[in-house]
Every structure is written in C-alpha cells, then in structure tokens.
Amino acid sequence: xxSLSEAFREYPLHLNHNKLLDFNSLQELPDSYAWIQxxxxxxxxxxxxxxxxxxxxxENVPIINLNDPNAPKLIGNACKTWGVFQVVxxxxxxxxxxxxxxxxxxxxxxxxxxxxxxxxxxDGVSGYGRARISSFFPKLMWSECFTIVESxxxxxxxxxxxxDVVVQYEEAMKKxxxxxxxxxLTSLGISKEELKWAGPKGEFKWACSALxxxxxxxxxxxxxxxxxxPHTDSTLLTILYQNDVSGLQVLREGVGWVAxxxxxxxxxxxMGDLFHILSNGSYPSVLHRVLVNRTRQRFSVAYxxxxxxxxxxxxxxxxxxxxxxxxxxxxxWNEYLGTKAKYFNKALSSVQLCAT
Length: 356
Ligand SMILES: O=C(O)CCC(=O)C(=O)O
Ligand SMILES: [Fe+2]
Known about the structure:
Jelly Rolls
C-alpha cells in the first residue's frame, strides 16, 4: 500500500526552512512577513485579541455535546451550514491535552539549529518547518510546524523526548475520529453496510492520519502578520486542539471571518475536502486561517484524518440521483494531496466533474 509519505514526491517544495527565523528575537516585523491590507481584503476586523469587535457576535460556530442523543442531527446541520463545529463531552481527558502541549512546547523551545536537524525534506511530509502552504503566498507566515506522519520516532529521534504522549494522543484521536465519522455519515443517511471501505464493523482500521504541532509565537506587529493563511484541509475531517489563545477564524459565506474562540476542553472539528467530495458537495470544507497577537504564543495540534491510502473517495452513491449527478471524480488521499500541492485552493475544482 503506498504510504502518505509518498504523496508529495511529484511536487517537491523548496521552502528554505534554513531561513526560518528565531521569532522570539525579533523586535520588528521583517518585510518578508508583512502582509499588507489583510483586513481590507476581507472586510472584517481581525484582531484576535478582541473577538467581540469582529462584528459577528451573533454568528457563532456551533458547539455540540457528543452525549446529546440529538448529536448526529446537530452535527449534520453544522456540517451543512458551517463545515465546522466544536465538540464537548468527547471523552478525552484534559491531561492528554496538557501532556501533548508540554511535549510540543519542549520541541518548539529547542534552538533553531536543533529544530533544523528534524527539518522536513522538499519531497517529504514529516518534519519541522514552515507550513507547506507557504509556497503559494508571496509573504511568509508567523508560525512554525512539526508534521508527524506514521512513527514519530523515525523522524524525531534527535529531538523527541522519551515519552509516548504522541502515540497516546494519536490513539485517542483515532477513536474520536471514528466516532465522528459515523455521526457525520449517519447525518447523511449512510449506514455501516453502505461504506465498504470502513471495514466490516465500520472501524476504519486502515485510516491514515497525520499530526501538525503548530506554534504561533507572539508577534511585534500582529495587525500586519499572518499566522496561517486561508486554506481548507485536504482531509476527511480534522480534529483541532487549541490552547487558550485565540486566533483561529473560519470563513462564513455571506458573513466574513468568524473567530473560533478556545473552549476549555473543547475540540474544533473541520470538514475537509475529501468529505466534501464524499458528501457530493453537500458538506463544505471550511476555509480557515490563523491570526497572531502581540503578547501570547498560540499553540495548536491538528489531527488530520483521511482514508486508507488505496481507497478512492467518491461521491457516495446514496447522494447521487437523476437530479443530483456526481460532482467529483474519485480520488485517493495521496492523489488529492498531489493535486493540492499543485493547485492549492483550486484543487477541489480540478477534480470537479460538472459545474454546480
Ligand atoms: O492552528 C490552528 O488553529 C489551525 C491549524 C490548521 O489549520 C492546520 O494545521 O491545518
Ligand atoms: Fe487547517
């Protein structure tokens, strides 16, 4: 079975991680990091320290209690209208978030020289560096990222602290992702018998995943800087833990950028491009971005969840009919990641079959 690590071989990216700055030593924003007119372009107030100023107080990302018997229905509604929601009562202990954050912080506080020992190679997925999407923008982003695919020990042997918190975190996320997948699929009327690649018990045994540990250092000029530029995830779904520093925003059609405030113990669930394809376009993959602030470092962990690497994701037959043709052609995750590396935010339209 081809592994995820092979996805980018065809489209190597030369992001020049060696030029990654020691963010904490800078008193001024270098020109290469200065994004001009972030706000004007989007018609929103974007200071993440003052989310109440963002004009969208009445438009909040739905918060769903996973113990609510009505959860699948609420999730379906959130997926259709937002493409994102937060979950509480998901069963993951707070101590695991504390532990992964501690491990992540230990990694980010290594010297640049040390971190670069684990630098991502141009054609690889795992390792330390800038966000891959950097190559699509003229300016640099105020963030750094460790991407972990498959065994963390393989790649981080030089830096990794001797504990298995990443493995525990991935196991907990995998279980939650399975549960969420069935809640979302149920909301579309798809049963376990109707999704063969999920396995006989619908356990998604061979699902693939990756982890992004993201750090957004405090920034001397946050109004002109961008933590992570607008993008959709190439996943089925993404489970995001964020520390108590705001900055994440999602684009709501007809409204603008809406802040997703950190919720103690809550997790943000983004629908990704592959779920958009599977749902035959009925559940949008949400465009999101991250802004930075002057005083506090933001930390997040994104668990990127996708299908087994040999599975073609296609619009589900139940969601196709005489008046609803299949909107996308079948793609594997690897193939789609290659498409994304080439076309970025136009990747979905590049696998589209007919105009909506
Ligand atoms: O840091 C965040 O809140 C978002 C991270 C993200 O979008 C990603 O890793 O794809
Ligand atoms: Fe993302």
